[in-house]
Structure formats: structure tokens, C-alpha cells
Design goal:
Length: 148
Amino acid sequence: MKRSETLLGGAVALLGAAVFLESLRFPLMPDGWPGPGLFPQILSVLLCLFGGTMAIQSIRSKQVEAEAYEPKAIVRAGLVLVAVAIYIAVVQRLGFLITASLITAGMMILLGVRVRIAIPAGIGVAVLCVLLFEKVLRVPLPPGILGG
């Protein structure tokens, strides 16, 4: 049993349960349209399932060895957290499309994807997100410097 995986899995499952309970307080939409609580509820159920699965598998596991992480992997994980913080700090000013494109492409490059693939993929993912949320789900995203 790996104690760290058991604790992490349990914490993720508890986080999922807390998010689900909080999302029940979101308003409902008329005429059967999904409300703002739909995606948090879906994600919270997935957090519960995957966190619980991780905890159960680590309890059942016979492995006891300690894992050592390469310093490069720890730095990359830290940079992901920094990228999330940067996104939160600049998305209102720059807008979703620009910020998501830059962050996505940057993360792909950080993880070893070639620049000529990462940049178009980052832009494409951001455009697809804008189309999905603004056009299909009618959820406004911050326009930023591109205007509204």
C-alpha cells in the first residue's frame, strides 16, 4: 500500500463530494436547459470516481517501494500551477481566446510537443472552446482586448 496515493485519492474524492454539494446550490434554468451547476456536477462525480478508484487501488496494492521523482518533473508540475495562476490573473484583461491559446500552446511546448504543432493546436483548442461555450452552451467567456 502506498500511503501517499491513498491519501491523495481520498482527498480528491472528498473534494469531488464538496464540489457536488456546493453545485447543488446553483440556480436552475427554465424550460429544462442545463443550469450553471451541470459541469461542476459532472466534474465532481468524475473526481469522486477517480479519486475513490485511486485510493482503493493503492490500498489493494502490494507495492511498498518509494518513488523518486526527477527534479525536471517537479519543475514541470510547478510550472503547470504557475500557468494556472497566470491564466487567472490575465484572462479578464487579455480575454479567453488569447489567454487560452497562449497557455495551452505553452504547456504543450513545455511537455515536449513541437512548436509547429503546439501553436496551431493551442489556437484550435481555444477556438473550439469558444464555439462550444459561447455558441452552443451560451456561456459568455471574457472577451478581453478583442472586444465583445
